[in-house]
Amino acid sequence: MKTLLTVFLKEVKENLRDRRTIMSALILGPLLGPVIFIMIMNVVLTRELNKADQPVKVPVIGAKYAPNLIDALKQQGLVPQPPIADPEAAVRDRDAEIVLRIPAGFGDSWRKGQTSQVELIYDSSQSDTGSTVGRVKGLLENYSRRQGVMRLVARGLSPAMMAPVAIDERDQSTPQSRAGMMFGMLPYFFVLTVFMGGMYLAIDLTAGERERQSLEPLFANPVPRWKILLGKLAATCVFSLVSLLICVIAFGFCGKLIPIERLGMRMNLGISFAAQVLLMMLPLVMLLACLQTLVSAFAKSYREAQTYQSVLMMVPIFPSVLLSVTPMKITDWMFYVPLLGQQVGIMQLLRGEQVTPVQLSSCVITGLLVALLAMAATAWVYRSERLAIST
Amino acid sequence: MIEVKDLHKHFAAVKAVDGVSFTARDGEITGLLGPNGAGKTTTLRMLYTLMQPDRGQVLIDGIDVATDALAVRRQLGVLPDARGLYKRLTARENIEYFARLQGMDESLIRMRCEQLVKALDMTDIAERRAEGYSQGQRVKTAIARALVHDPRNVILDEPTNGLDVMATRSMRQFMRRLKEEGRCVLFSSHIMQEVAALCDRIVVIAHGRVVADETPDALRAQTGEANLEDAFVKIIGSEEGLAA
């Protein structure tokens, strides 16, 4: 225990004196996520909100063929713009989000009581136009329905004939669950922070020490190698844990900075959220520290270790990608799988649902077991003769 | 006392150490002499339990390396071939770290640190971080941390490697003092003059085998060469890898 503490304290002291480690583990790693997050969310949200409030400006070609339609659209917040020569090209080049074209025959077919056509020209592959297109479509359909009703009434028929089925939507989402959908990348930020927080130590304490030729004298001391390893792992864990703590707190403040309520969503990143996230992530902190050290024990140099780390970094991406590509129903077995369990657990918290004690404990316990296995594997590799030899 | 009996160690097809036996006694300086690649470092690494021999036995003060490696390490002070320091720690912190790993208590650590800092003349660097130390300052710090627990047996792998004339001289003096204190000093070198000037006993290694184990005088007499360097060349049978 004393050996472990000696190694731990020395590694912490040494790394606190290293500006690069501090930058990456305690500043850049944990704060990058929240900062990027705030920026993206603010841009997205303000744009969505602005679009909803503001009148839509739409270039209209052939406005003179349908003056009544244009007047009705104006009343609902559409601002007709002068026509443009080549609407297809303008839409492709993003000069216009959407263009309305009214053909010359509009008035004729209208007067005959037939279906008159209008054209909407847009590019659905440009995602930022989606909400504008939706609004303009809605305005046109509204107008069409109203006129249809009036035609029926004029012929003495009931408007109900036009609508044999009425849809009444009852959306079961809550303000929190809608927010949860939006923040699906949050769990990955947490995992990434843990990874970044421990990475430099894991490299430095094994591959780095070997490269600097201090591992051989260290192993000449009368202490078993596994005790040295445990001290080093503890230091790595503490750095990534502190990193995670900073990240979780930063996200807590983040929640207040994003004007999410205005979209009818709510996000609770308070203390109980933070505590549950930390508890779920704890085994992952240990597991990643062990894996990072293990990988770095195979590397002959600092550089090689860095290369291995970047490959290892791909691993935590899998559950995030998996869940976003094939949205699955969250079931209990997922909590038994490290990484996946944390992912679904945090998602569930974000949606404002409870993580049951069984789910929580299965997530933590299997995580710890796997971490212990990784630790044993690392200790086994640490026994190797070649580990200490620098040249 | 260090007793080595019939040590073998191979890496893949290469027999690095192929039947090495010798004894290094207390109160004597024993030199392990041999050209580069003769197996000196590998032999020493087996003595301080970093590597396991394929065959053979090592006894340090009667304790078998194979049965109680930790006890052996307590009896040994080792300056390995690799002498990396922790650059973000001061010399004193470097020494204290190893002292704590030796299980010494804090008051003893402080006392021994003071002694060593004085003995190795490193007062000027004791509180400075190891980043930017000269080669000599690095070796001094590495020796201090190797000897902090006051070991009976001292193993030094090429201790004067990379040192300038002045630093080499003070290193030799320091080794003589270790001998006068009654310790068993074993060091490796490929430099003739150094071994001749220091050793009570010379063990010459070539191609993983002991080719001579004598006092310097006996070595000269045995080969019929008055000059120790010529004697050395004659013993190892070639001038390959020899650095004077």
UniProtKB/TrEMBL annotation, chain A:
Keyword vocabulary terms for this entry: Membrane, Transmembrane, Transmembrane helix
Major subcellular location class: membrane
One Pfam family in the UniProt entry: ABC2_membrane_3
Superkingdom to which the source organism belongs: Bacteria
Transmembrane segments: 21-45, 185-207, 228-253, 273-299, 311-330, 358-382
Entry's localization field: Membrane
Bilayer topology term: Multi-pass membrane protein
Keyword check for Membrane: yes
ABC-2 type transporter transmembrane domain boundaries: 31-375
Gene3D superfamilies the record matches: abc type-2 transporter like domain
InterPro entries linked to this entry: ABC2_TM
PANTHER family for this protein: ABC TRANSPORTER PERMEASE, ABC TRANSPORTER PERMEASE PROTEIN NATB
Name of the protein: Na+ ABC transporter permease
TrEMBL record, chain B:
Keyword Plastid part of the UniProt annotation: no
Keywords from the named record: ATP-binding, Nodulation, Nucleotide-binding, Transport
Domain ABC transporter: 2-232
Signal peptide extent: none
Superkingdom assignment: Bacteria
InterPro entries, sorted: AAA+_ATPase, ABC_transporter-like_ATP-bd, ABC_transporter_ATP-binding, P-loop_NTPase
GO molecular function annotation: ATP binding
Family membership: Belongs to the ABC transporter superfamily.
Protein name: Sodium ABC transporter ATP-binding protein
Name of the gene: natA
